[in-house]
Amino acid sequence: MQITMINPDQVKNTPFEKSHMLAKLTEMIICARLYNDINETISTLVSVGTFDLHVSALYGQVKKDYDLVRDTLKTRGFSALTGAMGVYVQPRTKGPGHGSISRAFYARPVFIKKVLNIK
User: Tens-digit pLDDT profile for the chain (119 aa)?
Assistant: First the structure.
């Protein structure tokens, strides 16, 4: 699940507590639906969860994930960002990749499962 695009200059110059990513994760509604087929002929709602990162036990790790991206941008540059980074939030290519250079913060499946309380 995409959280927000990565603007390298903004991330480098903005601590987590004032970040656009935190603003997006402060008041959020996540709707989980069942995948049916590629044409999405039906969409079954499985779970709905409200979420505020400020009151979540996940806050500390999400901050670490953001800070890792921020530190990487400062020390190694934008091209050093990789989808292998982060425990709950990863920086990765927006869309299918194939040469795209834009990056976004994405919530990993483990993060979404915790937010929706899915085992």
Answer: 899 999 999 999 999 999 999 999 988 888 888 888 999 899 899 888 787 788 778 999 999 999 999 999 999 999 999 999 999 999 998 766 566 678 999 999 999 888 877 77
Q: What pTM value is reported for the model? A: 0.85
Could you tell me the residue ranges of all domains in the chain?
2-116
User: 2-116, which class in CATH?
Assistant: alpha beta
What is the C-alpha separation between 16 and 20, in angstroms, rounded? Answer: 8
Q: Are strands 44-51 and 89-93 parallel, antiparallel or unpaired?
A: unpaired
